Amino acid sequence: MIIPIILMGFYVSSCGVNDLNRLESPDKSLVLDIELDNGILSYSLKKDSKNIFDKSVLGLKTDKFDFFDNLIIKDTQFSSSNSKWTQVWGEQKVVEDNYNQLSVYLENSVTSLDMIVHFKLFDDGLGFRYQIENQPEIESFNILDEMTEFNFSEDSPSWWIPAYAYRRYEFLYANTLISEISRDKFSELVENLSGDRLGPEAVQTPFTTQRKDGITIAIHEANLTEYSSMTLKSTGTKYLECDLIPWSDGVKVRTKAPFKSPWRTIIVGNNPSEIAMSTMTLNLNEPNKIEDVSWINPGKYIGLWWEMIGTNQSSWGSGQHHGAKTKRVKEYIDFGSKYGFDGVLVEGWNLGWDEDWCCTGDGEKFEFSTPHPEFNDKEIAKYAAEKGIRIVGHHETGTQIRNYESQLEEAFAYCQRMGIRVVKTGYVNDGSKNIKRVDQNGDLHMEWHHGQYMVEHFRRVLETAAKYEVSIVVHEPIKDTGLRRTFPNMISREGARGQEFNGFMPIDAHNKPNHTTILPFTRLLSSPMDYTPGIFNLKDYRYNSQSDRTINKNHHIPSTISKELALYVIIYAPVQMAADLPSNYEGHPAFQFILDVPTDWEETIVLNGEIGKYITTVRKDINSDDWFLGSITNEDSRVLNINLSFLEDGEEYNGTIYKDVQNGGWLNSPEEIEIETLLFTNKDSHEIILPEGGGQAIRFTKK
Ligand code: NOJ
Ligand code: CA
Hints:
10-stranded antiparallel β-sheet
């Protein structure tokens, strides 16, 4: 039940006076102060009396009016709300939405125009947004700059990926002080950022930093709708500025009144584990808009995929090694059906792959309802239905947006006809201002992957998919900002470096063992991820080329089978892929964990974690009493002691443990695994021994 209580309101008529307004979080740990100083509005934030953010300015500048200086506070309104809501699927079933709100009613004393800034303070962080109501002088306008600042009180180590870079969000993370953020630093520490320097020095969100006292802070946004995405501009100091990805003409946002910006979010926890359990981003999104959700199903899938991107034995396009041939697809369906998978992904099923589809936005036009002649869609649809499997469709667009949008309705209508309930979409291209947009006059413009043009495109696809009862898994997406609450058919997305980099990249550019110990505290704060774990054949898996079918000995995935299993618990996704080839699973004892692990949870607890070092997560199945544990480490071996108090009191559990062998690890014996079952109660503790780059996965079942 939502109980808005207006606690107080007051009128301040003149600028130039220091006006202090204060808001506390429900547990009083966070305190927000609002200040108006010489007509400029700012906020600051404390946690347990420690300054987290020093005075940070707020405001908007548009082509017609500004809300930056000359502001007066006309009124402030306080309210509180405490309610609960249930997820369609998720890391936890019930989410508590408990916050105190302060709405600041502002007027620009020169233009007499009004704006409201809403602040919501939760126990796990702060969200704020700008709102401009209909007013006589305001119709459509262009935002030229959002002035929001994030003035950290401490210059602390941070984990970030660059914005305005060619490979969108698909980078390993840099770890530097906030003041050290720069592309040069990224090139020095992580990967040489070649190519033209377009755009400012800025980082993507979620952006995470941890202070000396352990307090961990992540900046992101919620409900990114009809706006461009926010990056954080570095200044060479501990202070970051909101930087909106522009349209090709430099305008940041094209909009009109009534207008609401996305929420700017600051997640705050005492440690990394706390921020990984934050629900604030979801709470700042609107409730589910899809009435009948019976067609939105979590589950697991296999697919005709790793043999293209990983093992190099098949191709997406036509030719001798074309993968998506009817017979081969049926073999995958047989395997999926035998082991109770929900879906089989098929890439290369359609037309468009034969000429230069990758990385330029040019090339052949993809067709989304015309199968490749070697893929008998009707026969496969019938076969899959008989075997209780659903084909997971695939729409690689090559970011030919106009081509995709012109086929959108038909593309998803085709899915519905074929019984396809989940589609993986893809936007491979150089993301640096390289996406073609043709305006009403037929003129061509080149847009950024993360600007408003693409934000709106992604939404159009999501809503069209919903109309045809299709859920989507977006690769090369726009980042999630909690939209999955409003549209639960937004079932997963990539938006980070996934397993694929261990396929197509040379060994020195594979994901490092620490990558998956950073993701839970950065990218995964925003949403589920289609990382596609579960590779068992970690060495000697890749052909030199499709024609030279000898093994390229230079490939070695920096993981272990136990770690691959643990990732099913660590990385949340309602639809998880078992990414390896069926032949690597058949008969393998560790495969049982992939079959057992659920993808929809009643409860999640991050038991421990240090960013870039290790993490242990436990989750309780929504459909049974089982608990699952995943624990992983970076390149260092370590021993973690965990307390099993999360198990039900008075019950005994069989814990089936999947672990690396002694002195194993990603270098020594990545493919060796030990499986044992021990008896546990919630009074016990458990010692997790992790070798270098290793992991451990446990299924706890009631005895
Ligand atoms: C990149 C995606 O991440 C990958 O999963 C997909 O197979 C290729 N693009 C082709 O669409
Ligand atoms: Ca990708």
